Amino acid sequence: xxxxxxxxxxxxxxxxxxxxxxxxxxxxxxxxxxxxxxxxxxxxxxxxxxxxxxxxxxxxxxxxxxxxxxxxxxxxxxxxxxxxxxxxxxxxxxxxxxxxxxxxxxxxxxxxxxxxxxxxxxxxxxxxxxxxxxxxxxxxxxxxxxxxxxxxxxxxxxxxxxxxxxxxxxxxxxxxxxxxxxxxxxxxxxxxxxxxxxxxxxxxxxxxxxxxx
Length: 213
What we know:
By secondary structure, the protein is an alpha/beta fold. It has 8 helices and 8 strands. Helix 3 links the parallel strand 3 and strand 4 (83-87). The chain is globular, with a radius of gyration of 16 Å.
């Protein structure tokens, strides 16, 4: 298992300064793109990701919290994303979007909100590279972990094992040194944002998570 760092709450005037030391402890960077429609918040776009790509060689997992992701796949792929994750709630034809993402030679992920039936993903599990379980309502950092998420990642873990699927299981929301042990047996990626980025010592808190792995 690996920690994937979300920088949603980073000081955008000091991105390189704050992220560079942490990046030496990381393989994955989680990039939350919000459109102000699917979620009531706006974050950043392809230009910001492209600027990060010039500085960092981490795996960029771009998480599109957007109502119309299909229109922006090309831009985010060309900006340097290694994977693009869309929400199952906004796509009537998820396979078309998965194929579009794969067409750029990058990995395709699907995210699911806490109130969406996890079995809605069943038909596309053989085709995705990553499944992201939201353990908070998406849109803002700093929310508390929703314990129902434990059963959801366990379901994905069991389906993966039973069917020899290859997707990574990721969880995002309220991940800290207290909540990570609850899901560490079932997930491949643990996305953490506020617990690390808002800490008095981000490096110490990042290492706290890595010590659980």
